[in-house]
# Entry
Amino acid sequence: MAKVVEIPVVWMQGAACTGCVVSLLNSLSPGIARLVLRELVPGKHVSLRFLVTAMAGQGRQVMDVVRDETVKDKGNYILVMEGSVPVGHPAYGTVGEEGGREIPIAEIAGNLARHAAAVVCMGTCSSFGGIPAASPNPTGCVSMGELLAREKITTPVVNIPGCPPHPDWLIGSLLAVAVYGLGPVAGLLDDLKRPKIFYGKLVHETCPRRADFDAARFAKKFGDPGCLYLLGCRGPASYADCPTRMFNSGTNWCIGAGGPCHGCVEPEFPDRFSPLYEKIDDRRMDRFRLLQKPATAPKA
Ligand code: SF4
Ligand code: SF4
# Structure
């Protein structure tokens, strides 16, 4: 029988709401059991070594697994980081203990990242800071990219932003790494280190209400037909394939459910996209890349 290659994965959680891992656990195709028990692709198996939300082990046993991983699988495992990293004070976020000392998240995440083959940032908090880093950011939360820059860690990073991300965005990226290796995948990222296959188009480009935008048919209140631009839609500034992929196994998505896109996949979320239910202020959007004005300009 052909040898199965293990892809060790350590999933660490920082300042987060746990929604990203719940999104993954809700994946139906493939389901989480298939993902961790069977081969991801023929000959490759994800060996999930640590994931607090879904593991039975506790205490010293599991902390030993984390510590040993940086030695046993040095340069070979993938660190999936969920949540941003509080660096304002060591007590603002800790994971386990060593010699009676609580281990700060920044220390354990930095150490795991330094020895990993790659860091996959699952969610907007890990990718860009997100809600825990929102103003006034009392815990000094930073993204993983910023932590790595501070610690001069050069491990490759893949960002999978979203609040939460679609499970396909993570599983598809892991699949690509398993099949093609990290090098080719790194060449398929955008300038924010997001896989272009999932984040290559604006929500606005494939939105089913785009014809309404172009014809300047705007909803004035929730429940109205028409484009949600005046009600705060950030689709013209947000790169993700939500309109065609949809969440909950293709059931629905934000605009399909009648709510505007909040731009949850972008670094501007939430601070620079707030207040969320007001028309976007074009003057504050320095990365506002492809908004095409409708035939009749909407009034604010
Ligand atoms: S502004 Fe929003 S609702 Fe309107 S077309 Fe663009 S993405 Fe769709
Ligand atoms: S439609 Fe917008 S707010 Fe909703 S998941 Fe996609 S990027 Fe995030």
In short: The mean pLDDT is 91. The pocket of iron/sulfur cluster (ligand 2) is lined by residues 162, 203, 238, 240, 242, 253-254, 261-265 (CB under 6 Å). Residues 5-197 form a domain with the Rossmann fold fold (CATH 3.40.50.700). The first strand starts at residue 5 and ends at 13.
